[in-house]
Write a structure and sequence with these properties.
- The complex is a heterodimer of chains A (62) and B (464).
- Chain A is mostly helical.
- In chain A, 53% of the residues lie in helices and 0% in strands.
- Chain B has a single domain, classed as Amidase signature (AS) enzymes (Alpha-Beta Complex).
- In chain B, the strands form three sheets. Chain B has an eleven-stranded mixed sheet, sandwiched between helices.
- Classes of the chains: A mainly alpha (62), B alpha/beta (464).
- The interface between A and B is large, with 35 and 43 residues.
Chain lengths: 62, 464
Amino acid sequence: MAYKPFDADALIDAAAPLLQLRIAPEHRAGIKLNLKTASKMAALVEQIKLDDDAEPAPVYRA
Amino acid sequence: MKATADAVEIAEAVKGGQVTARAVTEAALKRIERHNPMLGAFTDVTAERALEQAELVDSKIRNAMDPGPLAGVPFAVKNLYDIKGITTRAGSKINRDNPPAARDATLVSRLEAAGAVLLGGLNMDEYAYGFTGENAHDGPSRNPHALDRMTGGSSAGPAAAVAGGLVPLSLGSDTNGSIRVPASFCGLFGLKPTYGRLSRAHSFPFVSSLDHLGPLARSTRDLALAYDTLQGFDEADPAQTKRVNEPTFARLKHPIPGLRIAVAGEYFLGAPEVQAQVQKVAKALEVTKTVTLPDAQAARAAAFLITMAEGATLHLERLRERPDDFDPEVRDRLLAGTMLPAVWVERAQKLRRVFRDRVLKLFDGVDAILAPATPMKAPLLGQKTAMFGGVELPVRPNLGIFTQPISFIGLPVVTVPVWQYGEDLPLGVQVIAAPWREDVCLRIAHQLETAGVCKAPVAQGFAD
């Protein structure tokens, strides 16, 4: 699936207060651009079907 | 010693008494003084410490003690490695407010224990989040082969210092291509070992899931010798392997019987000038086979997302408190990274396992895979866009498109420098092997070097 339409402003407005991040007006355009790129990347990743038993990869050893 | 001497040559001369470690060190310090203002490679020079270490090496030789395999070899490290007594800036302004490092990075200690002489810390993209070598606070590193061009990054200073003949050996880090991209642009041999092979302890992290450390050099024998010296378990890095050391230097010249090599097709094809570099290597190795790394584009996308999210997590407090003190390009990506839905990142980590399994199957049929290291030769400093596959795209995020899918699953890679006849700028080719088979990458690289297909000269004007 593609994340269209992707409303980066809505995500920023919801996430920034939650994360206690101050978003200066002059920073917003750069953040939006990066979020849009990330949404395209996420769509590419989601194109690959994964089985329910697919394990994530991070290294952890008890 | 000349600037062109490699580490093995220097160590042999020092151990043989033809030159002292002190003289080698002083000559390197002079070259740094003369050329560094032009190259922007060093950010910290540890002259006093270097002369003390050189004296230690010389005294061992005077007393008939073994000074180590890298006796008197000057080296320097990306400034995200801890150097005792110096603040680890990691290319940032913010971290300059931290106290000096209390101890050396494990890999620095390993090289010094082998007799090498640390000359200082090297420039890099801020917090290792970039492929250009343009640092907003310390200025850019400049490509010694063309001073108006990028070194590539983020191990920018490590590449500039070695290609500029300031030191024969440097240490960098590679999360998505940060050793392989600058090695490609500056015409060097660079090794990104298997994920977990070398200790990352006491270096400033970026993306724990993907961070690797490794060496850059001008000869394959230096790369192998450095790699052998750097191996060894270190419980301070939780991702590190407990595998026994697997030395490569002594077997570097041994051909691998029945070696099977293939070129990576489809996603890794690149522009005609890029294909030409890969074909030059393939022809020299008599490679005719092509393999497809399945879903490489999605793998690259997944590495991109994991990098954004883990990088943002690392820097969250700094993003809250000092957003204006970041390099703006880094800050905006990290701020965006704080806001990624968790499902995007978790899915990316699951794809990592799936992609790994699929690619490892390819190694049933081949021992090594060739792919370009970068989609272009070194861009001009300040260049914002370039043509990729006939489309104009931003330079900064696209320089790693061929390296990211490989580090995503931690495979060992040696980047080999390829120069076409009559051309002034190189482009690197990745020699990729199965996990823990650094020996395969290094032996193929050595074969190419011996055949004259690949070379890593000190840049003209810096070789005196």
